[in-house]
Amino acid sequence: MNSSEEQKGAGAPGTGGVSSAGETAPAHAPSTYDDGYPHEPDNESPAAYSAPPVTPVVETGNRAVARTPVKAGGGGKTPPPPPSGGGGEDDEDDRMLRMSFLEHLEELRARIIRALIGVGVAFAASIFFTDQLWTFISQPAMAALKELGFTQTLAQITPMEVFNVVYVKMPILCAIFLASPWILYQVWAFISPGLYERERKWAVPFVFGSASLFILGGVFAYFVAFRFGLTFLLGLGRNRYITPMVTVTEYFDLFVNVTLGVGLVFELPVILFFLILLRIVTPSFLIRNSRYAILAIFILAAIVTPTPDIFNLMMFATPMCLLFYIGIFAGYLLVLHRENRRFPWKKAMTIVLPVLLLLALVLYLSITKYGMRLVPHWPFLTR
Questions:
Q1: Residue 51 pLDDT
Q2: For the whole prediction, is pTM greater than 0.85?
Q3: Which 8-state DSSP code applies to residue 168?
Q4: To 10 degrees, the CA torsion angle through 220, 221, 224, 225?
């Protein structure tokens, strides 16, 4: 091989050899062949010339969908990760339990069965104290007959009357009052899946408050409403040569209607609180329309009151109006809690405490100076 061929071999493509001028030929520089014409190199630079990207195909169902490749150098955009927490009511709404209609029916059936089991346990406990319970329940009738000057007692008309009342109906009534916290807890457990997570924390206040109001309503009916209503009804025929003969069944039916009716009426603050909790009404709306609510309260009191006189009507309507405003106040505290505000308890106590002290002073002077004493019925003070 002569020198010219060696020079050609030094400049051969892909060798990266040194030219005759002493310069290093680039790998992609044109090469000279035997025909004397310049040619492009066979091994082209990958950086300068690259093959087109292959688009992968993903089969979805019965058709193929092309998926755009993502460059390794970060050219593609990946979706941001979902936020972790702090979503407010939307996140709480996601955490709310979702139930179908049949699941709601199954849940309702389970809660009713559990409530009935609680009533059954309380009934079994009450049936062992039937004598003491009947003495307690019949005491308003004995006091009313004695006050009116009658010597009669409750009458038995049918052979099964005493058994049905004393051993069946009366323990059931007592069981309802004893098991009321358990029954109201089952009510809360049924409706709580439809509430936000922060609103489910009201379980203990709801059960305690509603059960206390229901029992307080029964106590108010026994010591105040029922006694005055019964005395009024039995005294209607005293000056008309009419001797009362009250049967056990009629007396107990009236007792049940008054005690359960007043107990349910005392649940008014809980109902208003729930309406505000579910954002159906607002405290300002209730205040603006309070005149219509008071009218409805008086109509309801006229229906529940066993006597037609205005005194017993006011005796029923006054606590109901008070309960109405207590429910508005409880809802107002809930709204303040939602808005991260506080109620001015210190300013309120500066008004409430002097009033309570004044009432206590009047009670003390009535007992010590004027010889009055406390009695377990309205007006609770007598000589």
A1: 52
A2: no
A3: I
A4: 140
